[in-house]
Amino acid sequence: MPISLSFRPGTPVDVGACLALDHECQTDRVWQMTLNAADLNQQVQVGFRVETLPRSITLTHAPDPRRLHDDPDLGRLFVVARPDLPPVPVEPIAPESPDAPLVLPPPPPRLPILGYVVAHYDEWRGLAWVDDVCVAPNARRQRAALQMVNGVRQWAQEQGAARLLCAVPTKHAPMIALCQKIGMRFCGYNDQFFANHDIAVLFGLRIARARRVE
Question: What share of the chain is helix, strand, coil (3-state, %, to 5)?
């Protein structure tokens, strides 16, 4: 069952909580690349096939805090997700005497951050990129990540992007499945794309251009 979330732009106050989220996940599949380049001047054949691993492995990545900022002028998007709970009516506490002022109860505690998404828009190329998605373990498998990435797709359309792209490590089966779930298709790869020299498989989605929101 989808979890009910509320979304808002992230602020510097939220960065610590986002970095503290569990960025590990389990996977039992990998996109295995084969490269046949006997003659680089004539023909290069590259293929990918999904391989099932003999046992699940744990994936983790260190988020880049420099990406965790929201700046519409620079085409940066940083959105945090919190539980969407119904508002509770706040009733003032009756004073002990008629001359005493009304006393309001303390505000409800701030709800924890359950996830975040980071994206950026390359206006010159007309491309929007999903840079990072993270969901707390207790909110996974409840379509939280799907809600956030669909929000990025809407934001990208509002910016006037023609395509939404995401670069995913070949071992990150959950993120690959998420990209495919929103209609993204494999559109290429980049060797040694990540800092640890992992290969990135690229997924893209054509989106209808809309007038950019200023």
Answer: 20, 40, 40
Whole-number pLDDT of residue 189: 94
Joined together, the tokens standing for residue 149 give 């990435």
Enter the pTM of the model: 0.83
CA dist 174 and 26 (Å) reads 8
Q: Where are the domains of the chain?
A: 5-206
Q: Which residue has the higher pLDDT, 85 or 157?
A: 157
Average of pLDDT values for 98-106?
A: 65
Q: According to the CATH classification, is domain 5-206 in 3.40.630.30?
A: yes
Supply the Cα-derived Rg of the chain in whole angstroms: 22
Tokens of 98: 């008629």
DSSP for residue 164: E
Separation CA 164–CA 183 (nearest Å): 10
DSSP label of 17: H
* Single-letter amino acid code for the residue at 169: P
Pairing of strands 163-169, 127-135: parallel
> Other C-beta atoms within 10 Å of 181: how many?
13
What's the farthest any 2 CA atoms get from each other in the chain?
93
Tell me the pLDDT of the chain averaged across its residues. 87
Please name the amino acid found at residue 69: H
Identity of residue 75:
G
pLDDT at 93: 60
Bridge-based pairing state of the strands 115-122 and 127-135:
antiparallel
